[in-house]
Each structure stands twice: as structure tokens, then as C-alpha cells.
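[Discussion] Sanity-checking designs against the backbone

I'm trying to build intuition for which residues belong where. Below is a C-alpha cell string of 717 positions. I'd appreciate it if someone posts a full sequence so I can compare it with mine line by line.
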């Protein structure tokens, strides 16, 4: 029972005006059950947390020394070999939890020890391990076993708050004068050290008052919410009364006929804090918002609930029932029809999270094996949007009007750029003399991430950019998109250590063409790889179209005529400071919406929103409204002018207001009724009277119906 909360994000779809604002569908669905681990070992009680490249699943494995904590990582193309995180010694672990910090590092915590605690063991206590990418750190000893909150912990849960504190909450058995009772404790890591163990709710007497089964979540305001079950024994009848308590408030209470248990918690983008629990044989749910706790309601029959939320605002619930795993989501005031996830596999004890790409996951156990499923877009959906609003469509997204059609444009030999005329990157010395670039005027203004450029820089390593600093570098080892190291502000068509010349004998040709009006083309023809430049050549081209997108930003199409070796390259695009971008492919890891690179593939990057073709709209029954979305302003920081972009799904009143750091209204950019669609508003750094405001931090807030979102921007004069 644990809370944790670019594979593809939920699609942010729009209306098609020509068909009276017909709603576009999303093709998201639960994947078939994936085997995380299935062998002769006995594995139980899986937990899941996101990480930088996918998710980690951790579970307890029974060995001759007791239980050990194992984990396996999913990175887009399958599950890695299980690795042991905890000690492999007696008496083993007893409870554990997982979470992820703001640097996308996975954390695992556990109690190593046993019960009863009749004597002191120096190595018994609470431990922590972290994982940056693929390797877990040596366990760190945090608290020794003993009185004061660490006497046989159980039901550990973990979460991370707004300021990146790592929280652990657990139930501990307390022994006083021969009596035992349960209490709830917490501790947090502030980036330097772990806080002292703090009591949340303390039991007393021999089974007269106990607190157990904790759950925890953090909301977007920085608050920590801790839930747990309280049990009070009526001494006259020796019957129990159960209460579900969250931050001191009683959420539910029963008489002596049945119990409450198994709470799970999450928080959503609307700043609602959710709790679910088992009441007799049913699962109930309730949320807290600005008006307080709303009315509790039963969701379904079942046990072992687990919750998460996704970026679209859906709150997800999973549970076990009849030997199977089911999910449901809360949207527009009601829970969806239960969805069977485990199929013929069956299972029990599910746990949920949402990965860093917006996909809900559920894991579960069945007969000592671990399984997982992910709710994700399908390959025939576009990738995106990023935080600016770019999408990536490939020719396989044939249901969408924005999908490109492969149509190779062969440039004449007269457009060739001989490699001998290229500028060596960084001086072109030693083994780096095959790294180079050329510079060409576009002959027109091309708008990319809101900034206009008239010069193109082309790197010999398969990408184009709009600044010299992004190509005049030894960038021959591709990295993931949104990496702060250069190159940034680039379009990666086939970024790897391609070879066009130099002492290694490369033989690729490059071509450039512009019509000096609205279209520019760069072609890589027959480029080999540094480690074997003769074989496995690549031929691809970039097509830049000034008037492609309705937002005024340019459109980029990359076409692939010959693809030979695409297992170690990056395909995507990125803005100037690595705050927005799309990763179609990195190191043979494709986004779930990405069709594999092959001969005849075309990929188009545009800010135009997905719209289904007329025939598809008429037949698709999975209609779903798009989300309201507020994008980060661009550029940011800015000096003279910035653009604020937002999307609304339907007609309604919209306000867009700017505030300073003291909360004073600076300017109202929008206060009117708007039709559903995509909008861009500009701010020139002036207040309502037209007076220029001072440099500093400002906030812009969008309100549309029940949706409110605020983002920060920086003005530098």
C-alpha cells in the first residue's frame, strides 16, 4: 500500500470547426500484461515509482535469509534484469516504500530486522538507497531499531513534496509494560539529513487504541497529507470501532459490525487530495478541495485499492476483485466503467503510479510472479505536445489530418556543399577532424519556438541548429532531448557520430536549397558512421516551411530515404534552454507513439493540434474532450515581448491576468467569452496604463470554467 506517483503524454486534442466542433478521440488503452519477473523465485507485494527513463518496480523476494528487496526497470523496450537493493542476510526486510525526487531519481526505503525485538542488533533499522539511472546506491543506515518510533515498523509509505523533501511514514509496534499497541510516525529528508522521527498518532493500552495502515501524498501547495486507520476498543463489549483519519479529520467511521482498512492517497492537478479505502467489502473514495472534504461515495466491490493521478486531471483507482485487477478513473464528476487490466493472468495487491511522460501504470502479483500494465497512447497517435506546443506526427498517424506523406525531394548536384568547405568544429584537431558544420542564409524568416531566425547551421552529426554555438562543438555522442549540455536550439534528424570527411575517410554528401521565400531543404546523402563509414549509410533530409503552422511558427518535416543503423541516434527537437522539446527516439528507445525509423518514413514537427480526418471522426466511438492547457510563455526570460499560449476545449468565459510578486494585478490580457481552440497572447511588459513595468518576476493566471493555472515568467530590461 504505497503512494508514488517523454513516453507519450495524454493527447491534448482540439475541435474541428468544419464539423461543428466535433471532438477528437484519443487512442489510449491499457497494454496487455507485461511480465516483470517470472521464474522459480517467490516474489510478492510489488510497488512502483517513476524514474528518468521509465519506471522502477520493487518487490519482496523470499530467500533462505528471509525477504530481500529486488527491483527491475522498464525503459521503453522491456524490463531489465532484477537487481537486489537491500541486504541479503538474515533476518531480511519487513516493510518498504518507494518514491521519486524532482531530479527523477528513484528512492527506496525499508526496515531490516524482525520481531519480537528482544535484544539489540546493531544492523537492524531503517535503510535508504537511491538510483540515478540504472544503478542503486549502497544502502544507507538511517535509524537504528528500538524505542521511539523504530520498534518493528510496518506498512511503510513514501512520497516527495513540492520542495523536494523525501517523506517516509510508517506504522510501528510499541511495547510498554508488556502491552503492545500501534502508532504512526514520519520522518523526512531535506537534502542534507533525515529529520528526527516524529509521532503522528500514538496508540495506548493493550489494543484499546491503535493507529495503523498509513497512506501519504503531497499536494501542489506543499502540504503533506497523512491518512491512517484508527481502532478503538470499547472495553465494555471488547468490540472495535474503526475510523479513517486524514490530517486529523475523520473521513469515515464504522460501528462494530465491520472494519475499515487499506487507505491509499493521491493528489491531482486541480489540487484535490484523494483518499480511497475499503469499507466492509467495497471500495470508497473521497476528495478534499478548497471547500473541504466532499461526500464519500462507494466506487466498486473489491479490495487493496491504490491511487494515482495523471497530467490530464484524471484520478485513477486500481483494485483486486475475483482474482483479477481492475482500474477506473474519475473525470467530469463520475467514475468510469471498471476496466479489466490483468486479463487471463489474474492477480492481487495492485499498486499504481504515473510516469514522467504522463502514463498511469499498475503492477500486481500472481502466484509469486510480478506483472505490469501501462495506460498509454498507441503508435498511430502523435507525440506531444511539449511545453511550448509542438507535436510530432509521423506518416503512420494516418487518422490525423496533420500526418505527413513521404515525398522525397532530390536536390541536384549543383546544390552540393563539399565537405572540404565546411568549418571544422572546435578547430578540427586530432580524431575530431570529422566534426564540422556549414552556415547558410535561409533567405526568409523562420520562426522556431517563438523566435525568428534567418540563418541555418548544419552539423556533420545529423542535426541542424539556429546558433553557431550549437554546431561548433564536439557533439558526436547523442544525448536525450532536454539535456542542458549543448547542442540545444536544434532539430535532430539523425544525431549520432556520422562521418562526412576528415582522416577517417567519410564519404557522405550534403546539399542545401532555399527558394528565398518560404522553404529551405538540407539533405544528407550516403552518410556513414564513424566506426564503419563505408557500410550502413544514411540518407535523410530536413524541410523547413515558414507558413506550415497556424500559430505562425515554422514547420519541420524530416524524411528518411535510406535507414541502415538507427540504434544509437537521437531524433527530436529542443528549444534554446532545454525547457521544451520532443524526443521521438533516443538510443533505440522510441516513444510509444513513434513509428520506427525505416526507409520511406516521414516525421513532421508542428504546433498545429491533432485533428482526426472526417471519416475517422464519424466512426470513432471513443470521443473525449481535450484538456484546458496553459503553456509556458516564450521566450522566458524576455526583454521586450513574450507570447503566452493556451488551449480551451469549448466555448466559455476566459480570463488571462498578470500579477507581480506581491499579488497586485498588473494587466488583464483576456477577459471575454472565447470559442474552443488554441490562442496566443502577447505581453509587451506594460501595465494597464501602458507604462513599462520594472524587471522582475511576474505571474500569469488562466481561468477557464473550473480550470485555473498559474505560471511564472521573468522580465529583464
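Best answer:
Here's mine. Compare freely.
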Amino acid at each position: 500500500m504505497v503512494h508514488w506517483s517523454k513516453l507519450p503524454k495524454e493527447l491534448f486534442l482540439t475541435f474541428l470547426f468544419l464539423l461543428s466542433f466535433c471532438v477528437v478521440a484519443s487512442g489510449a488503452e491499457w497494454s496487455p500484461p507485461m511480465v516483470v519477473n517470472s521464474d522459480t523465485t517467490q516474489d510478492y507485494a510489488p510497488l512502483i515509482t517513476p524514474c528518468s527513463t521509465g519506471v522502477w518496480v520493487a518487490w519482496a523476494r523470499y530467500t533462505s535469509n528471509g525477504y530481500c528487496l529486488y527491483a527491475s526497470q522498464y525503459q521503453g523496450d522491456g524490463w531489465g534484469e532484477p537487481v537486489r537493493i537491500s541486504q541479503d542476510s538474515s533476518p531480511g526486510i519487513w516493510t518498504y516504500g518507494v518514491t521519486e525526487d524532482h531530479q527523477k531519481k528513484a528512492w527506496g526505503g525499508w526496515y531490516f530486522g524482525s520481531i519480537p525485538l528482544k535484544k539489540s542488533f546493531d544492523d537492524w533499522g531503517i535503510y535508504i538507497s537511491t538510483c540515478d539511472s540504472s544503478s542503486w546506491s549502497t544502502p544507507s543506515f538511517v535509524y537504528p531499531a528500538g524505542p521511539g518510533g523504530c520498534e518493528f515498523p510496518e506498512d511503510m509509505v513514501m512520497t516527495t513534496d513540492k520542495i523536494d523533501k523525501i517523506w517516509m511514514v510508517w506504522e510501528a509496534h510499541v511495547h510498554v509494560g508488556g502491552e503492545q499497541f500501534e502508532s504512526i510516525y514520519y520522518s523526512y529528508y531535506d537534502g542534507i539529513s533525515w529529520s528526527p522521527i516524529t509521532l503522528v498518532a500514538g496508540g495506548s493500552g493493550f489494543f484499546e487504541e491503535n493507529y495503523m495502515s498509513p497512506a501519504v501524498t503531497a499536494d501542489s501547495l506543499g502540504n503533506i497529507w497523512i491518512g491512517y486507520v484508527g481502532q478503538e476498543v470499547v472495553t465494555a463489549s471488547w468490540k472495535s470501532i474503526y475510523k479513517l483519519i486524514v490530517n486529523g479529520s475523520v473521513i469515515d467511521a464504522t460501528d462494530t459490525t465491520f472494519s475499515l482498512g487499506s487507505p491509499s492517497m493521491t493528489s491531482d492537478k486541480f489540487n484535490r487530495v484523494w483518499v480511497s479505502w475499503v469499507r466492509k467489502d467495497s471500495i470508497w473514495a473521497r476528495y478534499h478541495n478548497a471547500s473541504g472534504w466532499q461526500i464519500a461515495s462507494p466506487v466498486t466491490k473489491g479490495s487493496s485499492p491504490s491511487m494515482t493521478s495523471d497530467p490530464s486531471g484524471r484520478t485513477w483507482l486500481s483494485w483486486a476483485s475475483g482474482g483479477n485487477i481492475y482500474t477506473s478513473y474519475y473525470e467530469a464528476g463520475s467514475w468510469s466503467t471498471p476496466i479489466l487490466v490483468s486479463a487471463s493472468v489474474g492477480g492481487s495487491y495492485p499498486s499504481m503510479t504515473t510516469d514522467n511522460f504522463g502514463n498511469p501504470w499498475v503492477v500486481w502479483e500472481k502466484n509469486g510472479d510480478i506483472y505490469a500494465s501501462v495506460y498509454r497512447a498507441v503508435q498511430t497517435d502523435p507525440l506531444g505536445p511539449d511545453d511550448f506546443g509542438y507535436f510530432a506526427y509521423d506518416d503512420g498517424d494516418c487518422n490525423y489530418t496533420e500526418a505527413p506523406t513521404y515525398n522525397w525531394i532530390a536536390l541536384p548536384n549543383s546544390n552540393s556543399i563539399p565537405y572540404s568547405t565546411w568549418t571544422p568544429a572546435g578547430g578540427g584537431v586530432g580524431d575530431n577532424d570529422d566534426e564540422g558544420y556549414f552556415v547558410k542564409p535561409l533567405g526568409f524568416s523562420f520562426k522556431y519556438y517563438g523566435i525568428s531566425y534567418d540563418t541555418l547551421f548544419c552539423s556533420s552529426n545529423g542535426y541542424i541548429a539556429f546558433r553557431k554555438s550549437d554546431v561548433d562543438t564536439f557533439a558526436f555522442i547523442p544525448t536525450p532531448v532536454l539535456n542542458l549540455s549543448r547542442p540545444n536550439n536544434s532539430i535532430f534528424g539523425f544525431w549520432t557520430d556520422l562521418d562526412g570527411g576528415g582522416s577517417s575517410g567519410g564519404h557522405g554528401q550534403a546539399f542545401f536549397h532555399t527558394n528565398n521565400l518560404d522553404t529551405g531543404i538540407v539533405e544528407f546523402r550516403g552518410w556513414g558512421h564513424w566506426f564503419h563509414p563505408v557500410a550502413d549509410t544514411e540518407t535523410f533530409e530536413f524541410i523547413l516551411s515558414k507558413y506550415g503552422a497556424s500559430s505562425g511558427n515554422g514547420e519541420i518535416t524530416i524524411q528518411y530515404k535510406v535507414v541502415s543503423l538507427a540504434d544509437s541516434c537521437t531524433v527530436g527537437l529542443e528549444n534554446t534552454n532545454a525547457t521544451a522539446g520532443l524526443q521521438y527516439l533516443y538510443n533505440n528507445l522510441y516513444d510509444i507513439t513513434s513509428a520506427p525509423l525505416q526507409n520511406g518514413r516521414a516525421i513532421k514537427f508542428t504546433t498545429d493540434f491533432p485533428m482526426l480526418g472526417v471519416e475517422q471522426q464519424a466512426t470513432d466511438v471513443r470521443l473525449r474532450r481535450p484538456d484546458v492547457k496553459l503553456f509556458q510563455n516564450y521566450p522566458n526570460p524576455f526583454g521586450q515581448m513574450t507570447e503566452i499560449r493556451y488551449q480551451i476545449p469549448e466555448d466559455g468565459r476566459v480570463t488571462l491576468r498578470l500579477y507581480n510578486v506581491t499579488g497586485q494585478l498588473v494587466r488583464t490580457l483576456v477577459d471575454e467569452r472565447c470559442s474552443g481552440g488554441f490562442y496566443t497572447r502577447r505581453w509587451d511588459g506594460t501595465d494597464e496604463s501602458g507604462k513599462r513595468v520594472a524587471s522582475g518576476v511576474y505571474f500569469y493566471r488562466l481561468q477557464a470554467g473550473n480550470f485555473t493555472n498559474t505560471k511564472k515568467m521573468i522580465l529583464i530590461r
